[in-house]
Amino acid sequence: MDLQAAPLRYRSAAGRWVLLATVLGSSLAFIDATVVNIALPAIGRDLGSDAAGLQWTINGYALSLASLILLGGSLGDRFGRRRVFLVGVTWFAVASLLCGLAPTVELLVAARVLQGVGGALLTPGALAILEASFAPEDRAKAIGAWSGLGGIGGALGPFLGGWLVEIGSWRYIFLINVPVAALVLWVAARHVPESRNPSAARSFDVLGLVTGAAGLGGLTYGFTAWPANGPGDPVVLLSLAVGVAGMVAFVVAERRSAYPMLPLEIFRSKAFSGANLVTFLVYAANGGVFFLVVVNLQVVAGFSPLVSGLAMLPVTALMLLLSARAGALGQRIGPRIPMTAGPFVCAAALAWLAMVDADASYWADVLPPVIVFGLGLSLLVAPLTATALGALDDAYAGIASGVNNAVARAAGLLSVAVLPLAAGLGAGSLTDPVTLAPVYRNTMLICAGLMAAGGVLAWFLVPDRLTAHTPVQSFCDPCGPPIQPAGRQQA
Questions:
Q1: 3-state SS class at 228
Q2: 166-178: b or e for each residue (b if 16 or more CB lie within 10 Å)?
Q3: pLDDT on residue 480
Q4: How far apart are the first and last CA of the chain?
Q5: Cα 236 to chain center, whole Å?
Q6: What digits encode the pLDDT tens for the residues 32-52?
Q7: Angle 471-477-479 from CA coordinates, rounded to 5°
Q8: C-alpha–C-alpha distance, residues 88 and 90, integer Å
Q9: DSSP 194
Q10: Which domain holds residue 453?
Q11: In terms of domains, do 320 and 255 share one?
């Protein structure tokens, strides 16, 4: 019997279980994107690796994750979002185990590439599950809570990684993923309802997969190699050329395909396209901020690495406290106002942060603009994410999440590669305080401009209210646990 599950409510016990599963699952991928940086010196000593091998432990993960994240969203819409999420978490856990046991840097890099594949399957699925599972009036709250709680995981990751490396071995930062993934699998299998796009074709768009992966992979590798090799390096130029050609071929293939992986008609939605343009500008600014503020505090202001690492922690705390409330506010008054005001608040904070120099005091010069920046992000992120997902029918929740994740990651990679050069770094060094000080100031002002541009776009492209869509009901998965009848699902 095909029992239908009622939409979940934010404050229900069932809703909390779904939120727990998606937050923990997403945190696996978010943390492993950054925590490995902490362990690179220990990995190099233990495995006798050179700098190139160590760099590929970072790049290999980013490359496979970015290349396949659209695939993860599309598979979820086709074959079931919970099912693909569970596959991704399992894949990620097995790859983490291989990372922790790797005897050579070559095998470690290979395992990290596999980790990225798992991350590409689970990351868009987490947001798509929230969009498809919660009642429309509670989705923005759930996404806001997911943003805030996920930020806690991202902030604690480097500290947890440093502690594990100090007390034991770099291998622990990978092995700890296994029990966390086991918990996610248990919670998701028992409490997350299954959903998919019932009209999606089961045949797969192979040409779209190949061209999309080539396009995203080429751009990712090109932007990743750009800072170290320079924009004129043949490898950088070839990678970017492959990326651009791949994306052009992808658009052509999707336009001609009877069953496209990415239906191009979704971009006819002004709200969806606008939300992703705002995402690109905002996350490009964020990439520059979170990359250079910590470096500037150490190199120019002379702060210790620990204090520098803690400097941006108030942003995470504010997002944890306020993101769900900002999501509810966007649900109540519409997304346009918070998506316009939030970037302008962030822009003011970044113009303030640009003044941090060699004589800076944390309490007087750094903390106040960091708090203002955290308030701006808290106001912005949940309505932005909710708009990117809610602008389309629920049937497209997976691919909408995949597109938004891909846009955010591309923006972050591009900003780290391009912003220092645009700010006047040239052939200078980020470890020289005389060189870094003007580069940092110019970068913060550029990032403030990007934020302000995002606010302007939001005002003109994001509607006061999103169009109401007919929800796609969850379906009874014959391979999953029984789903309660609708009347019993509510809190």
A1: helix
A2: eeebbbbbbbbbe
A3: 35
A4: 24
A5: 24
A6: 876 787 777 788 888 887 766
A7: 160
A8: 5
A9: P
A10: 265-470
A11: no
